[in-house]
Amino acid sequence: MHDERVVHFATLSDFLKSLEDKSSKEFWPDILVYAAKPHMTSRILPDYKNICTSQTTFLTVAAGKGLSHYQELLGEGPALVRAMPNTPSAIGKGVSLLISSVTSPLAQEKKKQVTSLMDSVGSSYWCASEDEFDRATTLSGCGPAYVFAIVEALEEAARSLGLSQEMAQNLTYETFQGALSYLASNNRTAADLREEVTSPGGVTQAALSILQGTEGLNSLFCNALQKAYQRALDFREPSS
After folding, report:
1. Residue at 230 is within a domain
2. How many other C-beta atoms lie within 10 A of the C-beta of residue 58?
3. Which of 38, 42, 60, 234 is the most buried (most CB within 10 A)?
4. Residues 6+ apart with CB under 8 A from 208
C-alpha cells in the first residue's frame, strides 16, 4: 500500500531531509524529476546527491545544462536523463526530446518508465547524442514560439489590410488549425498540399513569391535554427 498523504515542506532542504531520515528506501523516488531554473543547478543539486542512488533515475527538464554538468554534481549514482518537453505538453499535445548518458546507458526498464512518463503529456523521442538533442530542440522545443510568432505576423498583416482585430485573429487561428488537421489526415507532403492550393498566376502564388523568395521563409528558418543551435551549445559548453 502506498502512503498517499500530501505533506507540505517549507523549503527544499526540509523535503530532502525528510527523505534522508526515512529508514526504508521504499520511500525514495524511482524517478526524480528536476525542474529548477538552469542558473540554480550549481546551488541546488548538491542537496540531491544524498538521496540519489544507483536505483534512481534523475530526469531533468531544466534547459541548457548538459549531462556532464549533472554528473559532476551528482556523482556516479543515479541514471541521468535530459528531457525537453515543449509548452503544448500542458494540454497533452507536447513533444518531448530525451537523451540519457552515453557512458552509463539507461536500463531498458528505466527507459520504458521515462518514456511512459513523458508520453503522458504527448509524444517523446529519444536522441542518439546530446548534439542531436540540441539540434532537435531548435525545432520542437523552440517551435511553439515560431508558430506563435507567425500567427502574430499574419494577424498584423491582416489588420494592415483593414480587417478587424477579431476577424484577423479568428481567421488566422482557424486557418492554422484547419490546415494542420488537413495535413495530419493526409498521406501527402506539405509541399504537395501547398501546390494544390496554389494556382499558377493566382493570388496565393503572388503571396508565395514573397514568402519563398531569396530572403523568404526557407532562408529565415535555416538561419534561425542555426542561431538557436549555436546558443544551445553556448549553454551546454560554456567557454571558460
Report:
1. yes
2. 22
3. 60
4. 194, 198
Cα dihedral across residues 68, 72, 76, 81: positive or negative: negative
Question: Which residues span the domain enclosing 16?
Answer: 12-128
Please count the CA atoms within 13 angstroms of the CA of 31 that sit on its side-chain side. Answer: 19
Residues with Cβ within 8 Å of 16's Cβ and at least 6 positions away in sequence, in order, are: 47, 48, 50, 51
C-alpha cell, 14: 526540509
Residue 1 lies in a domain: no
User: φ, ψ for residue 56 (rounded to 5)?
Assistant: -90, 135
Number of domains the chain contains = 2
Kindly state whether residues 123 and 170 are assigned to the same domain.
no
Sign of CA dihedral 227, 140, 70, 80: negative
- CA-based max dimension of the chain: 76
**Mean of pLDDT values over 20-48:** 72
Both 117 and 25 in one domain: the answer is: yes
Mean pLDDT, the chain, whole residue set: 87
**Containing H/E element for 96?**
strand 94-100
Indicate the residue among 97, 128, 159 that finishes a domain. 128
End-of-domain residue from the set 128, 154, 188: 128
> Which residues 6+ apart lie within 8 Å of 41 measured at CB?
62, 65, 69, 70, 73
Q: Is residue 7 part of a domain?
A: no
Q: Return the minimum-mean-pLDDT range out of 94-108, 154-168, 226-240.
A: 226-240
120 plus 210 within the same structural domain: no
Residues 157 and 66 in one domain: no
The amino acid occupying position 218 is: N
- Helix H segments across the chain? 12-21, 41-48, 67-74, 108-119, 130-136, 143-160, 165-185, 190-197, 203-211, 217-236
